[in-house]
Structure formats: structure tokens, C-alpha cells
Write a structure and sequence with these properties.
The protein is an alpha+beta fold and about 280 residues long. The protein has one domain. About 15% of the residues lie in helices and about 45% in strands. The chain is globular.
């Protein structure tokens, strides 16, 4: 599963929904600008149950019906090579308690020696983010702020929205992606997978407190739930926990739970050394 950029199209919504969506769109636009330069440490456990022995969709061997993997990573938002959007990058530095040996080389290749083909570079970044995932689902959507793309102004017209519940200062907003050729999530073969789910949003501010992103495609049901909380270090509501489940037609499941801490701002420093001529 992959995420894709969405084009702009105009559509109307009920007035109360429109007002909430306008606030949410402003919030997401500010969020993207502010969240750039912020990195979080992710502790991420993935578990597979009921897997069939053999090879998964990526060609990797499945040697047991149950698997578990623990990852530690830095997760950050980076500018897409085309310059038209942001994308998330998972920089895995520890797998099952062991450090990743080629981390420096991988980062250099991705960002300091990029491909001349922008699309290929985006694919390389997405692939690097997903390289340690386990299970029979080849996925690049297990990223905590992906669902916010639904609320971005340029994407909003591709979805229908409905107020699901009001509770005090918050509103639950359900959404459904329309049938079309290009969707937020698609298969590796570029087949569309319509997204649906809901957000919990502060009525007064448009801030997103929780999100659910789900999709179905024949033999697969996928759902990713994220909760947000305040973080004084970066003055934002940041992802605190992500839970995901992928259920396949054969009854096997892939579950993941990720928590986020140590939010901090980063800077790229370039050092030059001058050496005298002999």
C-alpha cells in the first residue's frame, strides 16, 4: 500500500461541516509548516499471527506462523523531492535491540546523494521507511500523520464528510473517499483503495485530537488509529500513539503499536574543513 498526492476539485458540504473543515484545513496547513524540523523517537512493536509459511509479498521468507519485531526509529517530516508536499520518513536505528549498521550510508544516499528522478527518490524514501516492516502486507502507510492529508484544503473535495457525534468541545467527523482513479492509498500496482474513517476535532480550533484511517481491498482490511497530545517542547499537538491492524482473507493479521516521545527540533549542519596546499 502506498500514499499518493491528490488533485484539487470543488465540492460542497453542509454549512456546519464546512465551517469545521475550514478550521481543520487551516490547522493542517499550519501544522505542516510547524512540524517540519521536528523529530520524534518512535518505539514500534509489530506482530504477525496466523501467517502461512513460505514467502511474503516482498519475497522475504515466512518461517513461523507468529512473528514479532521491535523497532526504534527517529520519525520526521521531510520535503518531497518535487517540492509540492511533505512526506514522513522513518529512520530506523535499532531492530530487536540491535543497532542498524548501514544507517549513515543509507541517509547519505537518500538525502545527500539523491536520484535525479524525483519520483524514484520519493519511492526510495518510502521504501527505506518501510524496510523493516514484517508481515504479508507490503505497506508504506504506517505513518502517524498520514490521515491529516484528508483534511488538507487541496484534497478535501475528494471526500464526503458527516458529523458523527458532538461531545462538549469536540466533534467526531466521519469521512469517505469518492470513487475515482487516484486515491490517497493505492496498491503497489497503482490500483485505487478508497479511504474512510473519522477524526475527533476541537470545534473551536480545528485541532485534531484523534484520527482513524481505514481501507478495504478484496483480501485486505487495514485500519490505523492515532491519538494526539500536547507537547511543550514544540508547542504542538503531536502523535502520542499509533495502532494499526491489517486483516487478510486467510485470517492472518498484522498488528502494530507505536508510541512517540523525545520530540525535539533538528538542524542540518554542514561542516567544511580547509587544508593548506602543500
Amino acid at each position: 500500500m502506498c500514499a499518493a498526492a491528490l488533485p484539487l476539485r470543488m465540492a460542497g458540504q453542509a454549512p456546519d461541516v464546512d465551517e469545521l473543515l475550514d478550521k481543520a484545513a487551516d490547522y493542517v496547513a499550519t501544522y505542516e509548516k510547524t512540524f517540519v524540523g521536528v523529530v520524534a523517537e518512535e518505539s514500534y512493536r509489530q506482530q504477525v499471527r496466523g501467517a502461512r509459511l513460505g514467502t511474503d509479498l516482498r519475497g522475504f521468507p515466512i518461517e513461523a506462523p507468529a512473528q514479532r519485531r521491535d523497532l526504534k526509529s527517529d520519525v520526521l517530516l521531510v520535503r518531497a523531492p518535487a517540492g509540492d508536499r511533505w512526506m514522513q520518513f522513518r529512520d530506523v536505528f535499532e531492530v530487536d535491540g540491535k543497532p542498524v549498521r548501514d544507517r549513515d550510508e543509507r541517509l547519505t544516499k537518500l538525502f545527500l546523494q539523491p536520484s535525479a528522478d524525483r519520483t524514484r527518490q520519493e519511492e526510495d524514501i518510502a521504501t527505506a521507511s518501510a524496510r523493516y516492516n514484517i508481515g504479508a502486507v507490503n505497506r508504506t502507510v504506517n505513518l502517524p500523520v498520514l490521515a491529516l492529508e484528508v483534511l488538507a484544503l487541496q484534497n478535501r473535495a475528494w471526500f464526503t464528510f458527516q458529523l458523527a457525534r458532538k461531545s462538549g468541545a469536540t466533534v467526531d467527523l466521519a469521512y469517505q473517499e469518492e470513487e475515482r482513479g487516484h486515491t490517497l492509498i493505492h496498491t503497489n500496482g497503482d490500483q485505487p483503495m478508497r479511504a474512510h474513517g473519522r477524526f475527533t476535532i476541537e470545534s473551536a480550533t480545528g485541532r485534531v485530537l484523534a484520527s482513524t484511517l481505514a481501507t478495504d481491498a478484496g483480501r485486505l482490511h487495514a485500519q490505523i488509529d492515532v491519538t494526539y497530545g500536547a507537547e511543550a517542547a514544540v508547542d504542538l499537538l503531536v502523535p502520542r500513539e499509533m495502532r494499526e491492524r491489517y486483516t487478510l482473507a486467510d485470517g492472518s493479521t498484522v498488528d502494530g503499536k507505536a508510541t512517540y516521545a523525545r520530540f525535539r527540533r533538528y538542524q542540518v549542519k554542514v561542516e567544511e574543513k580547509l587544508t593548506p596546499k602543500p
